[in-house]
Amino acid sequence: MTANSVAREHPQTRQYDHTRREPVRRFLRFLIRVIGFNFLAKLDRVDGLENVPLQGPAIIMINHIAFIDPMVVMHVLPRNLVPMAKIEVYNYPIVGIFPHLWGVIPVRREEVDRRALQFALDVLRAGEIILVAPEGTRHTELRDAKEGIAFLASRSGAPVVPVAIDGSIGFPTLRGSQRWRGEGVQLRFGRPFRLRSRQGRASRDALRLMTDEAMYILASLLPESRRGEYSDLSKATQETIEWV
Predict the structure, then answer these.
(1) For 101-113, what is each residue's pLDDT tens digit?
(2) Which residues pair with 193 in a beta bridge?
(3) Residue 185 φ then ψ, to 5°
(4) Are 61 and 132 contacting, i.e. CB atoms less than 8 angstroms apart?
(5) Which of 45, 165, 177, 199 would you call most buried, defined as having the most Cβ atoms within 10 angstroms of its Cβ?
(6) Mind listing the domains of the chain with CATH numbers?
């Protein structure tokens, strides 16, 4: 089965059904907690979790440096969320069953995936949280982000919660390994904000500005070695930022 056929057949690309998904997600979170963070990954520190809204729509925006990053956020969050992920994860051996069961939103990275964006908006309208890695793939340092995060935030009006992730490289690995003797994963949840366009429906240039302003906020939460393209915080502006 190809990635394209997965997207065509997967029911969550047609209609979001929160009630049907929740029992499965609760069970999967139990497995993540009991197996994942007792035997496969080490969590050292979580700061700012109180910044996550306890109800209503929100967008979790992360830097993405390792495969397990979304699962770390799923583990610590007080609510379930719906990640957006490259469509290829559905075809991974063994672990590919996880996005099927959870109802992860598959994204075609080589194009503007309007179906994925529309489904993400549907999830937000249902009052849920989505998780977005704006760069679209894993990097040890921040790279230029895609405008999807700005599109979703400006269209939905949902608050964006930036989450800085560090220490996840090398996991998952079995407890007792040398990696477990080193530092574990650290998460830092920043202050939520909204992205507003002064032009009504945002133009491409406005979306680019919103994206960069959001990424500079994320960069400010990361150690300097992880900031990459957004290292110079003096270039940060907040023309489209509305703090929550």
Answers:
(1) 999 999 987 777 8
(2) 160, 243
(3) -75, 140
(4) yes
(5) 165
(6) 21-243 (3.40.1130.10)
